[in-house]
Amino acid sequence: MTRNRLRVPAPPAPPLTGHLPLADAPGVPDPVDVTSRWLTRGGRPWFPVSGEFHYSRCPAGEWEEELLKMKAGGVTAVASYVIWIHHEEIEGRVRFDGDRDLRRFAGLCARHGLDFVPRIGPWSHAEVRNGGLPDWLLARACTPRTDDPAYLEPVRTWFTAVAEQLRGLDRAHGGPIVAIQIENELYDQPGHLRTLKRLAQEAGLSAPLWTSTAWGGVRLPGEELLPLYGGYPEAFWTEADGGWPDTCRKHFFFTHERDDEGIGADLRPTTVRGTDPAATGRFPWVTCELGGGMAVAYHRRPRVEAADVAALGLTKIGCGSVWQGYYMFHGGTNPPGELTTLQESHATGYPNDLPVLSYDFQAPLGEYGQVRPSYHELRLQHLLLAAFGHRIAPMESVLPERLPTGQHDRDTLRWAVRTDGSSGFLFVTNHQPHEPLPDHPDTTFTVDFPDAPSLTLPSAPVTVPSGSYFCWPLRLDVAGVRLEWASAQPVCTVEADGRTVLVLAATDGIAPELALDADTVTSVVVPSWDGEATPVDGRVLVTGLRPGTDALVEVDAADGSRVGLLVLDAATARTAYRGVAWGAERLVLCGDGVVFDGDEVRLHSPAAEPSFAVLPAPGSALVVEGERVREEADGVCTRYTVGAGAVGDTAAHVTLVRPAGPAPEPVTGVQGRASMPAATYVDTVAAEYRVDVPEELVRAPAGVLLRLHWTGDLARAYVGDVLVADQFFSGRVWDIGLDRLPAGESRARGLRLKVLPLAADAPVHVPGQVSDAWRAAGVGHAEWVVTRVWAVRTG
């Protein structure tokens, strides 16, 4: 048996308060403040979740629904670069219209209770041409990203334009702006960062938190900017033949090291200067760029799986993060430039060639709003933070006695505890990309507390499966009942049938057990099948549960309250949403996209008959477009099924117009990395296909994706001669949103697809390919995927 032991030290001294020059507007009802270890809001510990969504990379008509998807996914703050070149590509013509309407986007965040974090640059990176600086600015005789007056003068004008758009949206006026990021990844100019903050404030910008990215040993200007960290499961900016970077590998270990010297290392010296150790004692651990996915460059095309994203995110909570910030949470599409393309490329002096249009980033919500498995995985964690983040945020991260010997140790179990000295949460990560970690049989955990008796769990040794990651509660109080421990992850609470129901998620391969403090309960009723409640050493141990919607343990508390413990199986737990629906907070179980919007719940589903379960059930019947919804029992939930009507998935008719010619000879550019083939090869060598759009889809393009399975090097889609979508091959499917195509006759004419083959000796990294067959250009399968939006109301 492997007994993993952790000794919790005595509680630390109270955090520093009032020591930073960061303060909220006077008189706001829920003031934001920063201690040396966590953030507070309204005097209560606060654990935000932010997600990056670039408004200028998404059609304005879709913003509201996509923001509601992010909110339903547990995001509480929306971060967005304000990309200068997107707004002022032509000097003096500053555009905040249409898809560039910053004020409208911030207002939509406010309307739906989402905080807003503008990252105002002026240099953003964001895989944008010149890092977001306009070409006309770089043509001037000035030194960008310094205090050169010739540079600061147009920056001052730009900040003034941004401030005018955000006027009245600050906290003093009830607005959503909780933080403003200055610059990005500027590692050696602390004085310039201070100047930029001053210029932004003089322009009228205001926020309780002013932030800066802090990876790579950044030198910050004293304590004027809150340092923000990141970590990605993969990287496109490393070398094609470099393997999985150690700077990515490190994020699947529990450590107290905040910095990541790998992010952006292709744009700065590789020598890490080292973070000021004093900073970790004066600032909380805040993140803004946990990898929600990863972009693909021409020379390196990583694939990021849902488990990679989720394991990294959960690990960071266990390490001590008090703000989960994801980049990207929602993918996007680069706007077409008026003068040139707007992506990062070798042509602009960058070491990476990026697609002209696609900035999908393999994000939890895709370029066209696709709901991906990583969205469901992260939402499960965000539900935990929404329910218990105020308890987790002040808790210290403690590491076990036996630690991995290094970043290549795959045999030592990786775990940690967040604790206040007597209770806490136990985190385990047994997943990492590329190199699977082994099962850990015969495992128990012992946590020795200084202010309470030790806990050993589970009651009998278990096998921690390869690929698993989870969080278990330690002495969690739930409405008068103390859950001493559980071998299942807390999800959320909901009020149903006069009781508080704690929803938990089982881990595949580990039988769930619940240990209740016997002094806090008077009766425990388990499901009639298999479940047992046994008194053991002052606890009531519940075993034999079969996880699912009927695995409800009913508890009467000693104080007279009633509590339910609902243990969902792992798959069902990943369908859980919690939100205000039909007049009350409810648990909604649905494997598709769900948004909560006033008195309406909308389902985004490709299914012909989508279904969802609800706890507690609404007091009146549910209807969709005037039709009642079919209803049946599903354990303690009520399941509803919407009637048929969706178009469903249908094969797409694809015609080969011209076969591919020989692959172009590889060409290298900046830093000797492979460069994207010139456009002339796409015109002359690429295979060409025609895709005809069915008439019924032309009439109703909303929610319709053309999904292509293809091989080759790069692919581009055109309507007429207009480029509408592109992708580098990485083994992923290629989605193209029909409603993003030019409207009218041009859409009806269909699409032209051009697919280029890849030379056998091209120095590019494509994961998972072991033969040369994939290098040939071809579309193997294509289908139309129709996602319908079902608006569900009470009758």
UniProtKB/TrEMBL annotation:
Family assignment from sequence similarity: Belongs to the glycosyl hydrolase 35 family.
SUPFAM superfamilies in alphabetical order: (Trans)glycosidases (SSF51445)
Full protein name: Beta-galactosidase
Organism per entry: Streptomyces purpurascens
Glycoside hydrolase 35 catalytic domain location: 40-380
Residues making up the signal peptide according to the UniProt record: none
Lineage: superkingdom: Bacteria
Positions of the UniProt region annotated as Disordered: 1-24
UniProt cross-references to PANTHER family, sorted A to Z: BETA-GALACTOSIDASE RELATED
